[in-house]
Structures are given as C-alpha cells and as structure tokens.
Design goal:
It is a single chain. The protein is α/β, with parallel strands linked by helices. The chain has two domains: about 210 residues, Rossmann fold, CATH 3.40.50; about 90 residues, Rossmann fold. The chain is built from 13 helices and ten strands. The strands form two sheets. A six-stranded mixed sheet has the order 1-2-10-7-8-9, sandwiched between helices. The protein has a four-stranded parallel sheet with strand order 5-4-3-6. Helix 4 links the parallel strand 3 and strand 4. Helix 1 crosses helix 7, helix 7 crosses helix 8 and helix 11 packs across helix 12. It is globular.
C-alpha cells in the first residue's frame, strides 16, 4: 500500500497551530515542572504528558488525526496498531466522535494498557510484536477492516504532537534542548517541527533503550536502518525494530542526536521520578530523563517529555524496588 501514500512533506507551524485549536476540548495542556536535583546536575524540566486523560501523549495526535477524517472515512470505522498508548488515544477520540474502533494490539503489552483500550470501547485483535511491526509497514492486516490511522507515519497525527512543542516554548522560552523517546518517531517529528520553526537554535534529542536503538544506528549510518539485536523489554513504548524510511525522511533534518541508555539507567529514572515528584512513569516515559541525566544533552535548561504512565502497578513496584 505504500505506493499509494502521499509524499512526505514538512509539518508546518500552521498545521500545528490549527491542530491546537482542533483538539483543545479533548487534550489537556500539561504542566512543565522543574525536577529538583541539586547542584552539579543538569537543569531538567518535566513535560508531564502522563497526566493526559489516557495517561499518555498519543491523545494529541489521535484526536487531530480522527478530526481530520472525512465523514465517509469515519463511517467505515477506524483501526490502528499499538503497544497500548496509540490504541488508547485512537479509542478515546473515536468514542468521543461516536466512531467504531479496532486496535491491533501487541499481545505482550502491559495488562493496564490492554484493559484500558477495552474500557474505551475498542475491539482488540492481539498479535505478536513481529506481526504488528509488519502490519505497520504494510498498513493492512487480514480480517481487520476500516480506515487505518497510522500511529506515527501520519501527517495529522504528527501535527497533533507538535502542539506540545508550542506549550514547551511558551512555558520555558529559555529552553536549550528537548529530549523525547523514540518509538516510531512521530513524537520527535511533531515536537521538533514546532520548536525548530520558532527557535531553531533549540536542540532536539531522541532517546532509545540499548535493546532497541534503530534511530541511533540510522544516524551513524546516514540512512534508515534496522536493529537486528532488538529485544523486548519493559520499555515497551519506545524502540522499534527499524526506522521506517518515511520517518527517516522526517526526522533526519530535525534531530540533533540520539542518546542510547541502558535498561538499568531507565529503571533508575523511573525510581527518581517517583521519589522526587511522585510521578509514575512507564519505561518509555522515564527514558528521556535517563538520557538527560547522562549529560549528553547539555546542562540545560532541558525539557524531558514524560510521555506516559501506563504501566501495571505490580511491574512498576518491582522495577523501582530492584537494586534498592
């Protein structure tokens, strides 16, 4: 189906500002909170997207993408592919619009995400990760019908995420760098498109776990790369098996670098967020903080996007207790 796709085009500031108006009644303007770390460490501010109604940033893109569909496309119902957060976002927006929704969900997704998608009225089709990743590339899956909403390679989805960049600049005009987790790349593309249009000197860094770091490999190679050593981990909302060529087109001109961190560093960042701010972050939500704490993004002021907090409490407690 990729041959029929519209060519990749830049996400313009006008697209993002229009998205902001379009989704204002659905999406929360999340707070930016300074993380008090003491002297000798970077100045870090937390963009708390875990406070969205679905406890994840994906609602921004999903609400905009669904709002942009024609009446005919909505009448067919919508479907997406997700490890959990994009599925929740599309299901939430679809429920508000009275549109039927199916989510092809990764069968190893945390039960908290699975149950939340069901509670939002989505029909779930559970598949292995490899099947889901292939379906993301083909944009089709046998037995699933309706209008497909891609969870990251979608212009309107990305424009919705860009609204976060507008908020960051309004709340912290002196920001020097922003760090976001990379899964498919839609979050980085959206946030960077907004920020670079208004303040091109602000640096944008991606963050990936060491077990799934295709964007770092792509930057090193100068082209979209797979990650053959991919491993599943508790950082289920970030790190793919490859960088899609279309997303590489979008990200390569916007990203100033990618910081790869260990699972242990990510786990410690989850614990730090809980101890210092009483924020529950899933693995992907704490990943940018772990990256910022390495010092590779500079001294700041830094903004790290806490992209979500959808994690089973038993799993969260086990992770933050480990090694304590």
């Amino acid at each position: 189906m990729s041959a029929a796709l519209a060519p990749v085009r830049p996400v313009e500031l006008a697209d993002i500002r229009a998205a902001r108006e379009r989704i204002a009644a659905t999406v929360l303007r999340t707070p930016l909170v300074r993380l008090e770390l003491g002297s000798g460490l970077p100045e870090i501010h937390l963009k708390l997207e875990n406070l969205q109604p679905i406890n994840a940033y994906k609602l921004r893109g999903a609400a905009n993408a669904l709002a942009m569909l024609s009446a005919e496309a909505r009448a067919r119902g919508v479907w997406t592919i997700s490890a959990g957060n994009a599925g929740q976002g599309v299901a939430y927006a679809a429920r508000q619009a009275g549109v039927a929704c199916t989510v092809v969900a990764i069968e190893t997704a945390p039960s908290a995400k699975i149950e939340r998608m069901r509670a939002l009225g989505a029909r779930l089709v559970l598949v292995p990760y490899a099947v889901a990743w292939e379906a993301l590339e083909r944009r089709t899956l046998a037995g699933v019908e309706g209008t497909f909403i891609h969870p990251f390679d979608d212009h309107d989805f990305i424009a919705g995420h860009g609204t976060m960049g507008l908020e960051i600049l309004e709340d912290l005009p002196e920001v020097a760098a922003v760090v976001v987790a990379i899964g498919g790349g839609g979050l980085l593309t959206g946030v960077a498109s907004a920020i670079k249009a208004l303040k091109p000197e602000v640096r944008i860094f991606g963050a990936e776990p060491e077990t799934a770091a295709p964007f770092a490999a792509s930057l090193a190679a100068g082209s979209a790369q797979p990650f053959p050593a991919w491993q599943a981990s508790f950082v289920d909302g970030a790190g793919g098996k490859s960088v899609f060529p279309r997303m590489w087109q979008r990200m390569r001109a916007l990203a100033d670098g990618c910081i790869v961190v260990s699972l242990e560093e990510t786990r410690r960042a989850m614990r730090l967020l809980a101890e210092r701010t009483r924020v529950i972050a899933e693995g992907a939500g704490a990943l940018p903080l772990a990256a910022a704490l390495t010092g590779q993004a500079g001294r700041g002021p830094l903004v790290v996007v806490v992209s979500g907090g959808n994690i089973d409490l038993e799993t969260f407690c086990a992770l933050v207790k480990a090694g304590s």
